[in-house]
Amino acid sequence: MSNFNSPMRLSSSLIKHLKYRVRMGSNPLLPHSRSFTTTEGHRPIIVHKRSLDILHDPWFNKGTSFSFTERDRLDLRGLLPPNVMSTEQQIERFMVDLKRLEEQARDGPSDPNALAKWRILNRLHDRNETMYYKVLIANIEEYAPIVYTPTVGLVCQNYSGLFRRPRGMYFSAEDRGEMMSMVYNWPADQVDMIVVTDGSRILGLGDLGVQGIGIAIGKLDLYVAAAGINPQRVLPVMIDVGSNNEKLLKDPLYLGLQRHRLDGDEYLAVVDEFMEAVFTRWPHVIVQFEDFQSKWAFKLLQRYRNTYRMFNDDVQGTAGVAIAGLLGAVRAQGRPMIDFPKQKIVVAGAGSAGIGVLNATRKTMARMLGNNEHAFQSAGRQFWVVDAKGLITEEREDLDPEACPFARNVKEIHRQGLREGASLVEVVQQVKPDVLLGLSAVGGLFSKEVLEALRGSTSTRPAIFAMSNPTTNAECTPEEAFSIVGDNVVFASGSPFKDVDLGNGHIGHCNQGNNMYLFPGIGLGTLLSGARIISDGMLQAAAEWYFS
């Protein structure tokens, strides 16, 4: 049973932990306040560890850059080579080794070079966290695709075999009734950011179970590198309620619960208990929900958004990035921003990300049209949504309630020469959209036939957003878009691609439309402002402000 709406029950281990903290001079049950900023992370830290314990702790280990004074005070003299190196020298030595070891670290021809880089960086992370983040910050363009998409997808798929030492926390269905005490097992007294997943929909790769914690780790690496969040105050979390991936359930080396996923009230009870526990210990923490399947993404967002400091990156973050991209496409087409509500948009994909983008874009259009009921109805007619069953209309049976507002009127689409379940090619041919937006997680969905149909667009510069991750799930490549539709295409993708040489000195620019450009700012902005909730309006205002 969940403790969500019941009096707090203290387990014996929690009582023991609280008594210890009172003896050490702090009472965690007394009201207290703290700054929302990250400036506390720059204050000197009293370190109680000595000798090898320091060298084995990635939070505090500086390796050969410990000065002789530090070595004497921390009982490190004789435990390190005598030459004191600067951090710049350490990084230079590491980068030389990294380039040399990239090929050697492969597990054979099937182990991609990107995964080899991840392995080497991960080993550095295990032994010297400060140096790891210095390397990442100094080489963010090169290594962001390694610690985040697209490589993180490959890491998650193979995480059980790659696991060497724990990073983050794991709350499982077997821990019900114990989570309130479990949170005190984490050593940090202050946590600013948590990224949590249940592994049910990792990128576009499906149910990866406990292995999905890799996405939470990767996201928090970017919070540190891009937003400057103190790495000692971030926490990746996996909520393991089982997996419906039969391959994992039959794998004897799989690290998670080998049982089918909890559902319904049992599932909610686990997530409720987790949320109550983390906000009891860290009342001001920000929790980012990541890669929950559509079935739960909206429900959990609505359940917690007005009670806890949280947001769902797939629903809200993707929407913010997409709005910025869509407004940018209007500018690239040479049209005034007031024309945005006139854009005809075909959306492939009706999952949590797709519906989140649709809701946010409709609100933005409606605000430009007067922000009344008529404006919302008018804005809603600018979208044609295609899922695995084809064009979504009011005739669709068992339609997800979240998608209902975007179901097309049957009489209206008949006049357009379309029908319920019409294919993507048919929709693009008849609608002649300004924007073709992919959030389907189906690699190659924008086929040659679909792209050829887009050549009939009424726009002088049609936009193609292939936003699904990782790279293998992109709806099309920039080469395909530019070669089939033409040089005038506005192209963006979720994972990074190289620009395309169009010949005659012309370059087809491949823009990256990924949440990585948004969520670090959401977290930092919330932290600095002290905002109690993270509303859709905040993200929409940020996207619109850039183009105002």
SS strand fraction: 5-15%
Distance between the termini: 50 Å
The number of helical runs is 23
Helix percent band = 40-55%
- Got a strand count? 14
Shape: globular
Radius of gyration: 25 Å
Output the structural class. Answer: alpha/beta
Which spans of ≥5 residues are poorly predicted at pLDDT below 50? 1-13, 17-41
Largest sheet: 7 strands, mixed
Mean pLDDT: 87
Main sheet: strand order = 8-7-6-9-10-11-14
Describe what this molecule looks like in 3D.
With 548 residues, the protein is α/β, with parallel strands linked by helices. Helices cover 42% and strands 10% of the residues. It is built from 23 helices and 14 strands. The strands form 3 sheets. A 7-stranded mixed beta sheet has the order 8-7-6-9-10-11-14, with helices on both faces. The chain has a 5-stranded parallel beta sheet with strand order 1-3-2-4-5, with helices on both faces. Strand 12 and strand 13 form a beta hairpin. Helix 6 crosses helix 11 (213-227). The longest helix has 20 residues, at 313-332. The radius of gyration is 25 Å and the shape is globular. Residues 1-13 and 17-41 have low confidence and may be disordered.
